[in-house]
Amino acid sequence: MLIRQASDIPSSEITPEKLYSTRREFMKTLASLTAAAGIALPGCANSATSEIVEAAGPYDTNEKKTPYEDITTYNNYYEFGMDKADPARNSKRFVTKPWTVKVEGLVKKPATYNLEDLTKGLANEDRIYRMRCVEGWSMVIPWMGFPLANLIKRLEPLPSAKFVEFKTALVPEQMPGLKSGGLDWPYTEGLRMDEAMNPLAFIAVGIYGKPLLNQNGAPMRLVVPWKYGFKGAKSLTLIRFVDKEPKTAWSIAAPSEYGFYSNVNPEVHHPRWRQDRETRVGEFFARKTLMFNGYAQHVAQMYAGMDLRKLY
């Protein structure tokens, strides 16, 4: 399935939110409707009691998903403003087509790619991830996209590449939040190569089966669910393969508060707030924060022997 940008997809092709609520629930609804009408679906029994049961993927959480309305109106995207409501309000003029991504550094295929060429043939996947923000709130988001590893393999980094650096869009005339300063723009993030190749690391192009909205990082963004949310660089414009740890936006701005790894470690508190509790957006009561945001079985081995109280 080819990835198309939001403006390429007519509204008639977008499944209504009430029916969709992720492809799994949509398929269950479709199965019951077609069974009742006497229509068989491929691979399904033609019975009024049959139901398509699609097993959850190995990386999905089965927790209650955050509503689409909350995901798209409560955001951190400081290029469009500091308040959580600013990105949805101030990003409407942000142009995401045409879109290019520059690939450079220690890689066999450096070039400036059109988005369509860069992602052509990369199959879409659905992933339901817990996403933890450092300020103490969290969401459960059904993303649509593809593993970052698939893209990296296509680009063929050299053996000397040890890290992947990401930079985001910098368009002052379309990003009113840049006027307030605050960070060393453009926003820069990075991953160690083994982190970038971990099956959990993800390039998202949609939410709830719909193309990403501007406030969520359109047209493509990084998702690293075992790390704090600021590690998920939005609106990517550059991917660079390097042999040394890249400087990242928040570690430059406040090195005593934000380290390169940014792993969720509830045992280490931020200097200005606790990190062992979190509140899911839309809920009232806080819950316990999990090590690596609950993904320890998939990622803990990458940090064996590291002092995660110092390498924050």
Estimate nothing, just give the exact number of structural domains: 1
Instruction: Kindly state the percentage of residues in helix.
Output: 10-25%
Mean pLDDT: 85
Amino- and carboxy-terminal Cα gap: 38 Å
Total beta strands: 12
Principal-axis shape equals globular
Unreliable stretches (pLDDT < 50, length at least 5) are 1-55
Rg, nearest Å: 20 Å
N-to-C order of helices and strands: HHHHEEHEEHEEHEEEEHEEH
Which fold name is given in CATH as the topology?
Sulfite Oxidase, Chain A, domain 2
Which strand-content bin applies to the residues? 15-25%
Quick one: CATH superfamily? Oxidoreductase, molybdopterin-binding domain
Provide a descriptive summary of the structure in words.
- The chain is an alpha+beta fold.
- It has a single domain (65-303), classed as Oxidoreductase, molybdopterin-binding domain (Sulfite Oxidase, Chain A, domain 2), CATH 3.90.420.
- Helix content is 17%, strand content 21%.
- The radius of gyration is 20 Å and the shape is globular.
- Mean pLDDT is 85; it is low at 1-55.
How are the SSEs ordered, and which strands pair?
Elements: H1 17-20, H2 23-36, H3 68-71, H4 86-90, E1 100-105, E2 111-114, H5 115-119, E3 125-132, E4 137-147, H6 148-155, E5 163-168, E6 188-192, H7 193-196, E7 202-207, E8 210-211, E9 221-223, E10 236-242, H8 249-253, E11 277-280, E12 287-288, H9 296-299
Parallel strand pairs: 1-10, 4-11
Antiparallel strand pairs: 1-2, 3-4, 4-7, 5-6, 5-10, 7-8, 7-9, 11-12
